[in-house]
Structures are given as C-alpha cells and as structure tokens.
Known about the structure:
Layout: H1 6-12, H2 16-19, H3 25-39, H4 43-52, H5 57-62, E1 66-67, E2 72-77, E3 83-89, E4 101-103, E5 111-112, H6 114-118, E6 123-127, H7 130-138, E7 143-146, E8 166-170, H8 175-187, E9 192-193, H9 206-212, H10 217-225, E10 228-229, H11 232-235, H12 250-259, H13 262-267, E11 273-275, E12 278-281, E13 293-296, E14 301-304, E15 310-311, H14 313-321, H15 325-340
Parallel strand pairs: 6-7, 6-8, 8-9
Antiparallel strand pairs: 1-2, 2-3, 3-4, 5-7, 9-10, 11-12, 12-13, 13-14, 14-15
Helix pairs in contact: 12-15, 14-15
The structure holds zinc ion.
Zinc ion binds next to loops.
Amino acid sequence: MPAPATFAVFCSTSEARYARDMIPEPTRVAIELALSYHKALPERILDYLINERGISHREIEFSLLGWNGRRITIPVWGRDGKLAFFKLAKDPGDTSDSPKMLTAVGTSAELYAWDRVRLKPSELIICEGEFDRLVLETHGFPAVTSTAGAAVFRPDWAPEFQGIREIYICYDRDEAGRLGALRVARLLPHAKLVQLPEEVGNGGDVTDFFVRLHHTREDFLELLKTAQPAQAADLVVPDRRPAEPKDVGDSEAARLKALVTIEHVIGQSVPLRPSGENFTGRCPFHEDHAPSFVVFPKTRSFYCFGCQARGDVLTYLMRRDNLSFPEVLDVVRRFAAEAQT
Ligand SMILES: [Zn+2]
C-alpha cells in the first residue's frame, strides 16, 4: 500500500490549505509548479502512462506526473524533501531521435523516491528507471531508483537503507544492468539480486515483465523468492583504492580516455548519427530541437553549438550524471573493461 507522498497530502487534504502557507516559499513554488504540470496532463499522455507504461491512475496522482507542453514531467524530491529537479520523459508521439529521458543541466544524481526509504518498509526494491519504479509501486511493491541510470548509485545513499530488512535489486537484463546491480550490492551487501526471466529479452526490464508480458504481482513475488545475495567473488572490486582526485594522476585519466571510444560512451545515452568523420545528436544538456551536439572521435571530444557545452568523455560523464572525478574514473574503467572483453 503506497503511502501518499507528502506533497500529495498537502495538495489533497483540507487542513493542508493552511499548512501550505507554512511551507517555505521555494518549496511551495516547486509544489505548485509540479501541480500545474500535473493538471496539464493531456488525455493521450494519461492513456499512454496507464496503458503502455502500466502505471495506475492513483500512482500518477501520488507522483504528480505531469506535462510541460513538450515532455512528461516527473518531479524528483531530494533527501531534504525539496524539489530536486524534473526528469523529462519523451512524448510518446515524438518520432524523432530525441533522448527518451532528459535531466535539467547542473543536477546531481538523486534517489527517487526518498520518502520510500524513510518509511523503512520491510521490503524495498531498487530498480532501474523512474517508470519501472512507478510500475512496481502500481503493483504494491515499494521501490526506488537512481535518477542517473544503472551506473550510478551514490555511496552516501547506502547508510539510509539501514533498517530495511529485505532489499532487492532488480535492474535490466543486460550487462549494464548486471554491473550496476553489483555496484549497488557492494554498498548494500545484504541486498538480494533479482534476475528478470529470459522471456523479457536482452535489455528487458520491469515494465516488460508487467506490461508486455502481462505478469502479475504474484508472479513477481515468485521471482523475488529466487533472488540471491551477490556472490562474494563478484563483490570484490579489483584495485579499489580510496579514490581521491590527487591519488589519480592525469596519466590514469589519459590512459582510460584512450581505452574507450567517446562515441560509444556518449552513444549509450544520446542517439548519435554519423556525419562525415564525426557524430551528431541532440544535446543532453539543453532542450535541443536541432541536433546541435557533435562528437569528434579524432580529438575524443564533444561540443554543443546550442549551449556551448564542451569537453571529453570524463567531462561528459561528470556533467551528465554529476559524478565526482573518482566516480567518473570508475565508470570509464568499466567501459574500458567492457571494451576489452
Ligand atoms: Zn547543448
């Protein structure tokens, strides 16, 4: 039984009318913005969320999913209860190669939804992606996700999971999902790994399980019974040092940059098209309607003609997922390891 999120309570109960006056101004503005997007949800988007995404009407209301005129808005509330940012999901009617999800510039990876962790449910599922989380909640499973994909789970989030007896990690059925799940398991050793069945296909996710394959809550409960903690051997990270930027010389960064192809790394999050010897795509750092974003394999760099964002593969990941330098090196190390296998 999902507990209503704080803001939903504020907005739907009568005593909340005056409680709202006691909310600090920036928070109130944020709630009102989320509410105005929510009220603007067109019927066709509502239909899409319910029928194609498998998210219940109730969950859509609790989570204040909305519409900003171009994209579906998913308000993400920070650990402090304030609006951190909106994730912006692609309009299902948009047939362009615009990214499926956008995050506003300058935002950090956040956990969606903190109120779930804080309630200390007896069981909690960590999944990969906001829509997957909402499908799980729809089926009565308390769930959270990192807003920055499978590769990012911040170590400082882990202590907040103390006191939750059963933690399940259910990431997509692909290599990125497997590696991401192990990364979480290293931080939460008592968590169990849930393997989605083969029928979801390569890259299949929780939404495929429930929506495309029409599985039920009972089916997912059965799946949870098969979950196992990670093997000790999988939890060992080779040459893991207490990473401080000063420990990691420029040479290490340069070595790693040479091991990965920038178009491959960026291509994971931005659809890229060849253009001469370069690649172009829609910029992930601003609302880009023309492909303004260019990746230059030769110089291993990128540049956006719209917002002037520029840099190399490290800058890209630091900015996109708001990672620290050591965290970025970890991510690039994994890309390099994949490239070598
Ligand atoms: Zn840009």
